Amino acid sequence: MPQKIIILDFGSQTTQLIGRRVRELDTFCEILPYNKYPAGDPDVIGVILSGSPYSVHDPEAFQVALSEFVGRVPVLGICYGAQYIAHQGGGCVERADSREYGRAHLTGIDLADALLQGFEPGSQVWMSHGDTITALPDGCHAIASTADVPFAAYASDAAPLWAVQFHPEVFHTVQGGLLLRNFVVGICGSRQQWSAASFVDTTIEQLRQQLGHDRVILGLSGGVDSSVCAVLLNRAIGDRLTCIFVDHGMLRKDEFRKVMEAYQGMGLNVRGVDASERFFADLAGVTDPERKRKIIGRDFVEVFNAEAARITDARWLAQGTIYPDRIESLNITGGVIKSHHNVGGLPEQMHLRLCEPLQWLFKDEVRRVGRQLGMPGRLIKRHPFPGPGLAVRILGEVTRERVRILQEADDIYIQAMLSYRCDDGEPLYDKVWQAGAILLADVHSVGVMGDERTYEHPVALRAVTSTDAMTADWAHLPYDFLARVSSEIINRVRGVNRVCYDISSKPPATIEWE
Ligand code: XMP
Q1: Residue ID of nearest Cα to ligand 1 atom 21
Q2: Out of 29, 79, 188, 229, which one is annotated catalytic?
Q3: CATH code where residue 36 lies
Q4: 220 falls within a domain
């Protein structure tokens, strides 16, 4: 395995961001729960302790045995991590008079210190904590302050140990990237060899060794993760990979055909299965979103399994699982993520072993790997699309006719987004995390077309910006774009006489309407 940084997660919302920043330095890292330090792992070159929603004085605050790594490898404590190290070392952490939140500027920077080399006087940092360190442990010294925080950053005199009470991983800490580079590259000695190219080479080699001459099955969804996974496996084992792509009838307009063509163009061995009859029959009369999801999930698994069972000599099931799907979330806020369908039960039933070559990658890294593999740009930049497809974008019963109406409206919206150029020349589509149309199938509203009164359905347009779909903001789409899409939909899609734009963020709304 490559050199790696371990990030111990104390439940901060920005822990994943720390991981991404480290990966941007072409350095491999693993995010682990605060109490799962991999003692004895020879590849660890440094440890970062994340922030936390807790105070070090809370009875339920997370505790960790610092002696497992302090003094052995370089350590950086961030926010709670900094306060925890101070508290454990005999320093003093107290409730701050006023919550220290937002922008601050560093003073008294020790430019000779390895962590802050290259920092500008007054460098802006981002604070977010209710406690503050009022006395450092013996053997530590301050290396930067702010107007309100005397120990904004400190270092140990003896051990390779640093701590900052601000968040270097967030955008508003202007030199946060430099600080992390100083730590990861300068202090920990990362050779910066984790790149898309090195990932592709080593993974193909590992897959060849792992799979030998075995046959592998993979479920394709048309999405980025499963597609990149398929191409990677195809490079490793060629036609011994069989892909199965199930059409449940609720994909975007012409999507099944177009995606099948793209897959075949990339040389993949794909079996397309049109199972739409069965899905529509089972969804008849169903309006409850979770029931829709369960029916589609169950039918999908059954159709996929039946197809997979025909490949009798398969030994492995490959999945496009990516790192954020796997990070053992501390889930302190109790958030619930909607269940995503997977090929439940198949591995046991067919005695298949699981192969998940993308399991260490973040989404942007999956895209980089796809580019490295020479996959078509449009496929790599595709927006995420829910497994149950348009079924959860039709509010009410799902019928073929309603899917057709929504497909038409959605297609006008998405095609317009692809062709609309922003000021920097990029398509509007690429500025948005995810977009789609929603049909309010049980709602009718009055309109007038020509001389005739109409009584038809509204369509809502949704577009969000996000980095991980856990939180999202509604995209501020240009008015001229919205105006054009609205009139095109109303003029061209029979059954729709009104278009609305959804301006809700997540939370409190979700990205999908159902
Ligand atoms: P929400 O609506 O929970 O969506 O904000 C977050 C992300 O997950 C996708 N999503 C799903 N994906 N099966 C999936 O495979 C599902 O049932 C499902 N529900 C939501 C959604 O499109 C967004 O990217």
Answers
A1: 386
A2: 79
A3: 3.40.50.880
A4: yes
- Claim to verify: residue 211 and residue 88 sit in the same structural domain: no
Cα separations in angstroms, 224 against 7, 22, 73, 385: 27, 23, 37, 10
In DSSP terms, which residues pair with 327 in a beta bridge? Answer: none
End residue of a domain, out of 187, 205, 232: 187
**Predicted structure pTM score:** 0.83
Distance 225 CA to ligand 1 centre (A): 14
Q: Does 422 lie in the same domain as 308? A: no
In this structure, are 459 and 311 located in the same domain?
no
Q: Give the residue numbers spanning the domain of 359.
A: 196-380
178/233 same-domain check: no
Q: Does 450 fall in a domain?
A: yes
Active site residue 328: no
Looking up tokens 């790594």, which residue turns up?
69
Backbone angles phi, psi at 73, to 5 degrees: -130, 160
Residue 158 domain-assigned (yes or no)? yes
Q: Does one domain contain both 65 and 36? A: yes
Structural domain count of the chain: 3
Could you tell me the distance, in angstroms and rounded to a whole number, from the CA of residue 404 to the centre of ligand 1? 21
| Residue 500 bears catalytic tag | no
Distance between Cα 511 and ligand 1 center (Å): 7
Residue 275 contacts residue 306 (beta carbons within 8 Å): no
Out of 128, 157, 187, a domain closes at 187
Does the annotation count 129 as an active-site position?
no
Q: Find out whether the beta carbon of 506 lies less than 6 Å from any atom of ligand 1.
A: yes
In a domain, 393, yes or no: no
283 and 351 housed in the same domain? yes
Kind and range of the H or E element at 452? strand 452-465
Task: Identify the sign of the CA torsion 200, 205, 210, 213.
Answer: positive
Helix (H) or strand (E) holding 363: helix 363-372
CATH number of the domain where residue 407 is located: 3.30.300.10
> Among 292, 465, 512, which residue has the most ligand 1 atoms within 8 Å of its CB, making it the best to mutate?
512
Q: Do 44 and 91 fall into the same domain?
A: yes
- Rounded CA-CA distance 201/139 in Å is 45
pLDDT tens for the chain, 514 residues long, are 789 999 999 999 889 899 999 999 999 999 999 999 999 999 999 999 999 999 999 999 999 999 999 999 999 999 999 999 999 999 999 998 766 778 999 999 999 999 999 999 999 999 987 899 999 999 999 999 999 999 999 999 999 999 999 999 998 999 999 999 999 999 999 999 999 999 999 999 999 999 999 999 999 999 999 999 999 999 999 999 999 999 999 999 999 999 999 999 999 999 999 999 999 999 999 999 999 999 999 999 899 999 999 998 999 999 999 988 776 545 544 433 334 434 456 777 778 899 999 998 988 899 999 999 999 999 999 999 999 999 999 999 999 999 999 999 999 999 999 999 999 999 999 999 999 999 999 999 999 988 899 999 999 999 999 987 878 999 999 999 999 999 999 999 999 999 999 999 998 999 999 9
The answer on 438 and 361 residing in a single domain is no
DSSP state string for 265-324: HTT--EEEEE-HHHHHHHHTT---HHHHHHHHHHHHHHHHHHHHHT-TTEEEEE----HH
